[in-house]
Each structure stands twice: as structure tokens, then as C-alpha cells.
Amino acid sequence: xxxxxxxxxxxxxxxxxxxxxxxxxxxxxxxxxxxxxxxxxxxxxxxxxxxxxxxxxxxxxxxxxxxxxxxxxxxxxxxxxxxxxxxxxxxxxxxxxxxxxxxxxxxxxxxxxxxxxxxxxxxxxxxxxxxxxxxxxxxxxxxxxxxxxxxxxxxxxxxxxxxxxxxxxxxxxxxxxxxxxxxxxxxxxxxxxxxxxxxx
Length: 200
Description:
By secondary structure, the chain is of the alpha/beta class. Helices cover 41% and strands 11% of the residues. It contains eight helices and five strands. The chain has helices at residues 14-23, 38-52, 89-104, 117-120, 126-137, 154-161, 165-168, 185-197; strands spanning 6-9, 27-32, 55-60, 108-110, 144-146. A five-stranded parallel sheet has the order 3-2-1-4-5, sandwiched between helices. Helix 2 links the parallel strand 2 (27-32) and strand 3. Helix 1 (14-23) runs parallel beside helix 6 (154-161). It is globular.
């Protein structure tokens, strides 16, 4: 029986870092899709992967002209549920991650979504990933999409993973830029999680 070869979509944020620390995949894939914070996400992810000896793959695909909201330099669309919403973003990232994974013989791709993502975005719900898995796994390569932390919140995931807080301090959550703006929802979440955990 062939051994599973796993990868994770690693954004450099707290959730994906904690999941990667917990599950220890062989590969981590960071995608620069044209988001404002791509440089910092790559830097945080690269540092993390070096510390854990995970093979780090960086994929560059220019999709900035299709973006919306704080992650891009474009105005939010009227249908945007939140300021950071980018249309079909998670579907795009999973697709790009699978396109790279299939060239590496990876058959499991993990996503760092948590329960609270589904409260804000349709593409953060467990039902979304279930349907996406059905679609992806029926295609060549039979890649399985997993969201192991989808029933947890970020605090629960961090505690489950037992990730050292010193690693979490290297995470990047800002949506607007490569330096924390302290105004966006990503920065606010990072601040609140650190406050609840008592780390700084």
C-alpha cells in the first residue's frame, strides 16, 4: 500500500502554522496570488518550515487584478460579506495547491481553516471543503482535501497542536501589508489570540 504524501497550504498565519506543527506534513505550499501581504507571508512560512525541516514550496501566480478588499488594492465588491473577502479565494488556493501537489506526488492537501472561518465566509465552512474534496478527489491524482481543524477555533487548535509560542510570534496575519497595520481583521485576530494566550 502506498504511503500517504502530505502537504499543507501554509499562509504564515497562526492557524496554518499551528496545524502544520500538529500534523507535520512533508511539504508546505505558500501561494503568492497577488495579495498585499504576500512577501511577509512567504517570510513567515519560510522561517517556520526551516525550523521544522518541512520542504517549503512557493508558488507565484498573479491574480491581483481579480482581488477585492483589504487583501488587494481593489475596492470591495458590493456583495463582499467582510472587508478581506476575495471572490473564490479558497477555491483558487486549493486548486493552485493541487496543481503543484500533483507534480510532487502528494495525495493529501491540508487546509488550515477553523470553525470561526465558516461563521464569516461560505468557503470556510466544513460543507464547502467536503464538496471541494469530492470534486478534487474524483480527478486525476485523487488528491484528498482535509481541514483537520474545521471544528476547532484558533485557541483550541493552538492548544491541540502544542506549538511553541515562540514560533507563533513569527506568524503574519495582516491583510493590508507586509507589516502589521493594526487596523484590519487579521491584525485584530492576531492581537486578541495573543492576549488570550498571554504571549507577546
